[in-house]
Amino acid sequence: MHIHWFPGHMAKAQRMIREQLTLIDVVIELLDARIPQSSANPIIAELVGSKSKVVALNKADLAEPVHTTEWVNYFRDMGFATVTLDAASGKGTKELVIKVEQEAREKIAKLTAKGIKGRAVRAMILGIPNVGKSSLINRLLGTATAKTGDKPGVTRGQQWLKVGKNLELLDTPGVLWPRMDDQEVAFKLAVTGAIKDDIYDMEKVILHLLEILNHYYSDRLCERYKLTQKQLPADTNELLSLIGSKRGCLRSGGVVDFEKVRRIILTDFRSGKLGPITLDRLKN
């Protein structure tokens, strides 16, 4: 699909992160539970280095629980404190705060031994665009302080935010890596909304999504679009046309409006109307 995107403000974000990391006790890396591997930015791992980190799998309500459990165990086996979240509802946020404070306990104890008492834990939230950083901050604060949106790149600035008495959060813009050589990763970032919809080939992305859905989740396609298993064609172009007809996405003369049906399928996937779906799966 040849998806490449790296806005200038993201290069600036990297510089900001490097400058502020010396002030941080714990890094929270927010991942998309549907694509835990694809949403793990290697640049973030490089920036964070050996600093304490908590891995938070957000949008867990949109991912298959069995695969999410496998990913939680995977990250924990790697030595990272790991939690699952649904920032939109607040589920898992209390556990996240507890994990962050636990990870910083040794650092705070050393400060206390030096006579620095009562300092709050300082944490930085890092993640790719549109993974839910602002929604998580708003949920933690209980107010819509951080600007949110369903488009990548909404958060551009940097701000310290107080959460309770013992935690201070540094919000940062979403950071994508400058080269996406793995186009399967690029596809997953595109379809989950980490990359702006107007910079990639929507037709190819939706056809690939349908290919995956038809292979792993054909029952969901049938349920959502009123189809039977016998009706499901192997050819994704035919499947797209069939869904368009079923949903009434027709122009004059009965011609399928492919742009409209592609938008419907993408919206259904992102909103969870096709049910919980995991695109990154661990190999057994």
From TrEMBL:
Keyword vocabulary terms for this entry: Cytoplasm, GTP-binding, Nucleotide-binding
Domain CP-type G residue range list: 13-178
SUPFAM superfamilies (UniProt xref): P-loop containing nucleoside triphosphate hydrolases
InterPro entries: G_CP_dom, GTP-bd, GTP-bd_ortho_bundle_sf, GTP-bd_ribosome_bgen, GTPase_MTG1, P-loop_NTPase
PROSITE patterns in the cross-refs: G_CP
CDD domains registered for this protein in UniProt: YlqF
Family to which the UniProt record says this protein belongs: Belongs to the TRAFAC class YlqF/YawG GTPase family. MTG1 subfamily.
Role: Required for a late step of 50S ribosomal subunit assembly. Has GTPase activity.
Name under which the protein is recorded: Ribosome biogenesis GTPase A
Organism: Sporomusa acidovorans (strain ATCC 49682 / DSM 3132 / Mol)
